[in-house]
Predict the 3D structure of the following.
Amino acid sequence: MSASGGSFITVEGGEGCGKSTLIKGLLAALQAEGRSVITTREPGGTPLAESVRTLVLSPPEGDAWTPLAEALLMNAARSDHVEKKIRPALERGDWVLCDRFSDSTLVYQGVGGVSRDILLAMQSEVTARTRPDMTFILDAPPEAMLSRRTARGTSDAFERRPIEFHRKVREAFLDIARNDPGRCVVLNAELAPEALVDAALKAVRERLVPA
């Protein structure tokens, strides 16, 4: 939590797990309590970072970035995002709800084969003191989330990867949660949207809202 009273909440998880739906629900609930809240996403959040998002998620047909190149691009976008949007908002006392952050780079590019030491070194330089106060990890079997992605009718470079990749992604997120229980809260992504928002709000009120 920033000195001005804002909190930084990130929402993580595999493809199709409902991050956007949860963020919309949290936004409405926190605003109803009179809080100033902004929502953002990664990669993205600023004009430059959104340009990187397009490069990473929609490379030219038949082409693909190496995992290390992906990690470098993600961190370039994150540096701009943190400096221009996230830190200024927290310094104003706003609450920031972010769809993905540095955990996603540790997971996706780590599963891709980039050394954890390299990823952590980049993360330390890029995020510096800007660390989430709370991270929700939305968890469900990737097979269950596949139907959601199919129904949505869109796909990107990560969504199109084999199911085994998504299984490893799931386990890597759960590993982060096990190693950082003070920050991370694992939620069942198969809950109905209203129940998922209620569970997240309960955690926010217990951990971040002063009594």
The domain at 8-207 is CATH 3.40.50.300 (Rossmann fold).
